[in-house]
């Protein structure tokens, strides 16, 4: 992908979007779709903050140039041309990053890479708002991920051992103001994992972070802070998905037909289509359990009008 023209210095008014822009830069080569939507979120947010001050107008104009260049380069990508595909792509990517960090956390493996994963997942859930309001699950994941990034970072910084897994969210923690939490001094390239979710923190090189290797098929334990309805992510040819438990299929769904008085709204059709997209994405990673769950949700929605 062709290099984008650099942006001018970030105006102080736009401090709240600096990490979203940094995430965009980190993904320019790794996942241009993620990079595009991070910039789109920054653009929309910046316009709401200040679109009149000269320095802000100049910055937003250059950011718009980057967006147009990216859109031209990705013109044949469905995740750019179709919002529902783009939303599914971004949600799947954010969830995969969250699941990696959550698995590391619950296993008691605390390191900068997992802090970065938690924090970046929370930023990407911010970005999902370019498609509309967040689901309750996404709101819970964002809150939990941002809190966990701050909590674990502060523990490691103070020489304390973090408590693994959900331990109660401290509402006052604000990772936005903590530059080190998931944002600085992270490894240039994470080491190749030897299992589906294991990194050796002692082998991590120093330097600036540019990417996270997220194994396909990684699943959060049953007591994840919110339901995780789908699971896809960055491909890796060297890691096999973990063994799966196939969910029981509701036999009534095979014989259910849409009732005559059921009237589906455009939003219902969009949600059903999204569930089917999630199922298709899950099958790319041989995640049969997630595919079945999402197909069942789509079928139930289409036949009953309810989720």
Automatic annotation (TrEMBL):
A GO BP entry: protein transport
One GO CC annotation: endosome membrane
Comp. bias (Polar residues): 232-243
Region called Disordered, residue ranges: 160-245
Record's compositionally biased regions (Low complexity): 194-206
InterPro entries according to UniProt: Vta1-like (IPR044538), Vta1/CALS_N (IPR039431), Vta1/CALS_N_sf (IPR023175), Vta1_C (IPR041212)
Membrane topology: Peripheral membrane protein
Domain called Vta1 C-terminal: residue spans: 266-303
Record's keyword annotation contains Transmembrane: no
Transmembrane regions listed in the UniProt entry: none
Record field: compositional bias (Acidic residues): 169-180
All copies of domain Vta1/callose synthase N-terminal, residue ranges: 16-158
Alphabetized UniProt keyword annotations: Acetylation, Cytoplasm, Endosome, Membrane, Protein transport, Transport
Pfam families documented for this protein: Vta1 (PF04652), Vta1_C (PF18097)
Cited Gene3D superfamilies: Immunoglobulin FC, subunit C, Vacuolar protein sorting-associated protein vta1
Localisation per UniProt entry: Cytoplasm; Endosome membrane
The protein's assembly and partners: Interacts with VPS4B. Interacts with CHMP1B. Interacts with CHMP2A; the interaction probably involves the open conformation of (polymerized) CHMP2A. Interacts with CHMP3. Interacts with CHMP5; the interaction involves soluble CHMP5. Interacts with IST1.
Family: Belongs to the VTA1 family.
Descriptive protein name: Vacuolar protein sorting-associated protein VTA1 homolog
Native organism: Daubentonia madagascariensis
Lineage: Eukaryota, Metazoa, Chordata, Craniata, Vertebrata
